[in-house]
Amino acid sequence: MGASDDDREGGAVAPTGIRRRTLFGAAGAGALAVGAGAGYLARGSADAAEHPVADPDAVPVDFAGEHQAGVTTPAQDRLHFAAFDVITDSRDDLVSLLQDWTDAARDMTAGNEVGKFGAVAGPPVVPPEDTGEALGLPASQLTLTIGFGRTLFAKDGKDRFGLADRRPEQLVDLPHFSGDRLEPAICGGDIAIQACANDPQVAVHAIRNLARIAFGRASVRYSQLGFGRTSSTSEAQVTPRNLFGFKDGTANIKLEDTDTVEDFVWARSGDGPTWMDGGTYLVTRKIAMRIETWDRESLEGQQGIIGRAKGSGGPMSGGDEFEPLDFAANSRDGEPMIGEQSHVRLAHPDFNGGAKLLRRGYNFVDGSDQLGRLAAGLFFICYQRDPREQFVRIQNNLAGLTADLMNEYIVHIGSGIFACPPGVGSTGYWGESLFT
Amino acid sequence: MTPPHVRATLGAAACLPLLLGAVACATDSEVEGSGGENGAIDVTASDDSCSLSRTDLDAGPNTFNVTNDGSRVTEFYVYAEGDRIMGEVENIGPGLSRKLVVDLPADGYEGACKPGMVGDGIRADIDVSGEPAKDLSDSAELKQAADSYERYVQSQTGALVEKTDDFVAAVKAGDVDKAKALFPVARTYWERIEPVAEKFGDLDPAVDEREPDVEPGSEFTGYHRIEKQLWVAGDTKGMGPIADQLQTDIDEIVRLAAESPLTALELAQGSKNLLDEVATGKITGEEDEFSHTDLWDFKANIEGSKAAIAAIRPVLEEQDPDLVALLDERTAALETELNQYQNADGTWKSYDELSKAQIKRLSDAVAAVSEPISQVAGVVSESV
Ligand SMILES: [Cu+2]
Fold it and tell me: Is B331 in CB contact (< 8 Å) with chain A?
C-alpha cells in the first residue's frame, strides 16, 4: 500500500476523512452504528473513495455456492480449526445447531457481526450476541468449512441421530500408520469446523462465537491455531515454506486446474450417498516436528530427505521450482538424484497410482515444551474425493521407518477424518442434504 | 396477573424489546405486512437506483439488509439532518449483501446508496416514529418475584446461621471429625445465596476467600482458612478466633441481607453469577482445594440458581416460554450429570476422584445452562 496509507496516517483532511470523524462524533452522541459498517471503521474510507476496489480483505469470500468455501479458496494465511463433540442425543437439537451455525457463519464470513444486534447495539443488561474482538476488522477472507466425523453417524455402536445408514463408505476409519503416536484427546470429533482468514483475530473470533452458540449442544473437543499456510491452492499464490524451511505445496492441486479439482476433490453423483454430491472428504493430521534435530541436519541431508533444493524449491534432479521431477535422473555415482526414500518421491502421484490431494495445511507453534524444545509442526489438512484412494494410499506409502526419510523428524500425534457436505445457498443450512 | 401495559409496550415498541424481542419483532412486521425478515428493511442498490422495502420505521434499532445488484462496489448510509452519519456500511461488492443495524430515535433521516463509493449518493427519505424504550421500573410481577426470592433467602439464612454455629462449635471444641463433616453442610446454605452476600463488600471475602486470593497484608480467614487447618494440619489449632469471626461475619451478612433484598434484576444476574461460580472455581477444583468437597458447593450453587429462576418464572413464562423450556431441559440434564456423584447417604464424592472426562461433561452441562441463563436479565428488564 502506498500514498493513501500515508495520507491517512498523516491525518490529511480528505473529505471522507472528515466524514469518518463525523461518524465517531455521532456515535458518541448516542447513535449506534454497527453491523457491517463497523467492520471498516478503522480502515479509512479515504482509501475506498480513491480505489473503489479496496483491500481484498474487505471483499468477503462468498459463503453460498455449489461447494463449501475454504477448500479451493486461495489458502488464507491463518487457521483456527476446531473439532466438536455433539453432546445432545436429539436430532432436532443437532439440526437447530447446524442452522444456528450457518446463520452465524453467513454473518461472519460477510464481515458482519453475529446476530441481530451484534457486539454493541444490543440491550445493555444482556451479554452481547457477538463477542466483539473482530470489530473494526474486515472480513479478512474468512471462510468456514464444516465436516462430519464418523462418530456423528454412530458412536460406541449407538445411532444417536438416525444417521447410521447414511455414513458414506469413503468416510473410513483411518488405519494405523506405522510410526503414529496419536493422542486420543486431539483426534476425531463428531464435527469439524475449519476457519481460515488472513487475520488470526478473525479466525479465532469465528470459532469462539461458533463454540459459544454450541454450548449445550456441542462441546469443543480440541482446537488448533495455525499460521503461515503451508501450501498454495492457487497459481496466483507464492509457494510458502513450512517450519523445515522448505517450500511446501509446489505441486499441490491448484484451483485453476479445474479438471484436476473435479477428478480429485469433489465427490460426484454416483460416488457415494447423494447427500455428499458436491461435497469432499477432509483428513487432518497434527504432525509434530523435531525441529531442533532437523536444524542439526546438514543442508545436503535436508535436501536429500525432501528431494528438493531448499532455496529454489526446485527438484534435486534440476531446474527451478516448477520443473517436473525427473525420477530417472542419476548422479555420477549412479544414485538417483531424487532419492528413493525422499519425501517428494514417495508422495508423488507416480508412486501412488496417480493419486493427488488438495492440501491446505498450516504451521503451528504451541509454545515450547518443558525441555525448551519448540512444540511445533504442521497441522496437515487435505481434501479429496475418496480418502481410501488418496490420503490412505499416499500415507501408507510414506509411513514406516524404511519409507520416507522425513519420518525421523516428524511424528503424527493427531488425526481426524470428516465428510464435508456440499455448499449451501443463500438460504438453507450446512448439511441439510444429510437430514432430508 | 400481567399488568396491561406489559403487552401494550411489546406491541408499540416493535423492534425495541431487545434481544429476545427478536421474535416479537418478526411478528410485528408480519402484521404490518412491511416485508423483510425479522422486520429488517431490504435495501436494493444498483448502479443508478437505491430502493428501500419501507421507509416508515419504528424508533429503536433498525436492521438494513443492503444488497448490491449493480456492477460497482457500493456503500449505504443513514444520514440525520445536516448529513450527520447515523450508520454506514461500506465495500459491498457486486452481488453481495451486508447488514447494518442503526439505533434511530424518532426523526427524519435519509438513506443513501453510493455506487462506486463516491459522491452524495442516491437518496431516499426515511421517517422514524414511535416511543423510545421504557425505563425499567417496578412492576407488580417483578415485585412478586423479588418477594418470593426473599422468602427463599430467609429460609436459607436461618439454616446458614444454625449450621455455621454448629461448625464453629465443633472447631472450638477441637472435634476435627465433626468439624470436617459439618464444613460442607454449612457451606451448602452459603453457596445457595452467595449473590446476596456479594453485595456486602468486604464481608464476602472475609467469609469465603481462597488462600491464593488473599491480598498482601491482609489475613487469610473464613471457611477456607479453617478448611486448610482441618485437612492439611488435621487439627484446629489457632482456629478459635477465626471461627468466632466467621460466626460474626455470617450473622452480619444475614442481618444486612434482610435489610436490602435483591431486586428482580439483581436476582436474575445472581442466578447467572452462581453458575459462573461453578464454571470458574468449582469445575477446576480450586474452591475446596484441601477438602475436595467441591461437589457440595456445586450442587448448592445450582440449587440457588434454580431458586432465583423459580422466583422470576412467571415473568419468564410470560415473556419467553421457549427460554424457560430450554432452561428446564438443560438444568435437568445438569442435575442428572451431577447427581450420579452423590452417595446414598446424601454426601458427595470427593472431587479429586472424578476423571478428566467426567469433569469435562460437567463443564459442558454447566455451560449449557449458563448461556440461556445469561439472557434472563434481558427478559426481566424487558417485562415492564
Ligand atoms: Cu508432504
Answer: no
For residues B38 and B66, membership in a common domain is answered with: yes
ipTM over cut 0.85: no
* In A2-68, alpha helices (H): 3-9, 15-28, 45-50
- A371-416 confidence digits (pLDDT tens): 999 999 999 999 999 999 999 999 999 996 668 999 999 999 999 9
- Nearest CB to B90 within list A25, A48, A123: A48
Q: Which domain covers residue B311, as residue numbers?
A: 138-381
Give the start-to-end residue ranges of the domains of chain A.
23-59, 289-417
Is B71 found in the same domain as B145? Answer: no
Q: From the CB of residue B173, how many other CB atoms can be counted at a distance below 10 Å?
A: 11
CA B141, B145, B147, B151 torsion: positive or negative? positive
Q: Distance from the CA of A233 to the center of ligand 1, in angstroms?
A: 14
Is pTM beyond 0.95? Reply is no
Is position B1 within any domain?
no
Q: Give the end of a domain, one of B85, B116, B133.
A: B133
Q: Of B133, B163, B193, which one is at a domain's C-terminal end?
A: B133
Contact B297, B282 (CB under 8 A): yes
Q: Is residue B188 located within the same domain as residue B151?
A: yes
Q: Do A212 and B22 touch (CB under 8 A)?
A: no
Hey, are the CB atoms on B87 and A33 less than 8 Å from each other? yes
Return d(Cα B329, Cα A57) in angstroms, integer: 42
**Which amino acid would we find at residue B259?**
E
